[in-house]
Amino acid sequence: MRTLTSKLFCKTSPLLHRLRRNPLPLPLPFLLSGKTLIRSNHDYSSNPNPNPETLPSRFLQPITTNSPPSPPAAETEEDANMNEFLSRFVYSIRGKISEAYPDLPRDTRDSMLLIICQNVIARLDPAAAASDEPPIDLSEDLWKTILDVSASVNEAMRRDRVRAELRKYLHCDEVKQMCRFAGEVGIRGDFLRELRFKWAREKMEEVDFYRELERMREQAKKEEDMEKGLIEVSEKPKITALPQRKGKIRYKIYGLDMSDPKWAEVSERLEEAEKHVVPEEARPVVGRSKRVEDRIMDLDPVKDDLKPVFKEFEEALSAKRVDWLALLDRIKEHNEDLYFKAAELLLDEQTFNPTTRDYSKLIDAHSKAGRIQHAERTLNKMLEKGIQPDVLTSIVLVHMYSTAGDLNKTKEAFEKLRQENFQPDLRVYRSVITAYVNAGMPKQGETLIREMEEKGLKPPREIYLQVLRAFAGGGQVDGARRIVCTMQFAGIEPDLESYKLLIEAYSQAGDPDQARGHFDDMMRSGIKPDDQCAASMVSAYGRKNLLDKAVDLLLKLEKEGFEPGSATIAVLVGWFGKLKLVEEAELLVKKMKEGGEEVSLEVHVSLCEMYSRAGNEQKARQSLKILEGRKNVMKGDQFERVVSGLVAGRLLNDAMRLYDVMQERGFTLSESVKVGLMAAQSIPRHESAKKKIPKDGW
Fold first, then answer.
1. Which one of 66, 473, 582, 672 is least enclosed by Cβ atoms within 10 Å?
2. CATH architecture of the domain covering 356-556
3. Structure pTM?
4. What percentage of the chain exceeds 70 in pLDDT?
């Protein structure tokens, strides 16, 4: 190891020659412990030799410009190995210095490298160091590091030599012949490759074995000749000094001449570029920083203030951006509410250096957690700092506002994407279409579907059905038929869901004949209706009060094995309630309970409306009590039906109480029902109960 190290500093780089001639002063005195220097730099003289022409050291000599350079000698195998060793060693030891002192400038680190080289030379050649002033002492840990780096470099070179030698045996005749034989017997692929490497290693070990035997034989013969006196034993001369290097040092790595000064500039640019490309690793959190982190984890995100604890964490760890990101990940796994507060706080932290992506990630996390106001606050903070939302942020905003049901802001974010010349994908289009559908504007959703088709995006079946469901719910038959035709042109065959929605559209529009026509087409195509489809068909007949046709339809379906479910029974109960056929409706409910089916919310709404209109206050209030327990899942039309029935049954106090609940949920009554409720309150109950007899006696 000492031999290698002595050769290393005998063949040091031109950079070290330059630094030796013009030593760079270190800006601050430094005391190194562990893998560091143990003397301060002010002990080192800035001008170790007043004579710049010659240096007292026989190992580092200045390059004179007056004398012509010596012609480069032919590079021997030993010089090639040594050049490779020097290149790897200097690279490794420079990395150790950079790792210990990442904040120091490059020139300062080069000066430290020069000091290390001088100390190694002084230890290897005390005679040369006697004429020079005493060098700065190095710690034992630093010497250990130098020896460890030398050992690792030697091991890496040994592995490379083994690989190169193994590569030769992979292509030797014996191994090729064995591979051909293996291929003939059917061995292929990875197994053959493994066998080839195995045979090459065995061949290399065999050659090494016989080579070692030959060396042992020659050594034994030499010792025998020395005993017989055939060979004179001469003392090995003691090496008191290393020869001076003449000419320019040549570094070659993979055929490139690294001694050219341009590579120094390239390495500096690469070092700067790696800071942006290669991600840094977070520092280990131990000791004081670990205790501070434990305190952070125990904080209450609502009551406690995170700023002083974060300031203490920064001082304990000298935290950078990568350290803050690692801390955020650990906080998110521990407490999500604390993560939101910590992430917002770090947006104002200078050492965190927030980017546009940090804002978009936090906005996305807020939107997925349903924290729309917090997401908007983060967006406003982003705009206040002059950071404009990028494409990713706009996509997050589209999804967030679509989920929140804010059509205007969804459109604004979508237009922002178009201004950035971004081609929206299926997820973005789906979110915007959902916003239009939830706002009751399926026509604009259909327009976006056309736009997708023009741009080569194939909408999936779910998007078509989403718009078709909106048309069907509003009774817009023309729009529903256009969507069905568009689906067929797109190669999507009609299924039960599309037929069911088309029948529902005609049912809402009050056209039972067209609904029955599509129902029969579905039956002829081999698609059996489900309970919801039959309910839509019965509802279409119920709007026209065609009870006989509805009964015929149910009897026909019953012959084919269909049994009415909760949806069909709910429609029939509502229909019977309007006809005041209380016993028939109760019979259907009883049959549903006997079949083990749970009475649905729609059935309870129909029962409450029926009992109210029939004047059965006791049963009406029983059904109303059940509905009040499930008021959070009731829809606007269901509220209106119950209120209308209560007004018709003169249960005005109950009607007003349910109307207040309806307003709290954000629903409004239609004008006709609202006027009826106000009028019923102004008419006394006893006057409305009087029967008015016509003048004609009827």
1. 66
2. Alpha Horseshoe (1.25)
3. 0.56
4. 78
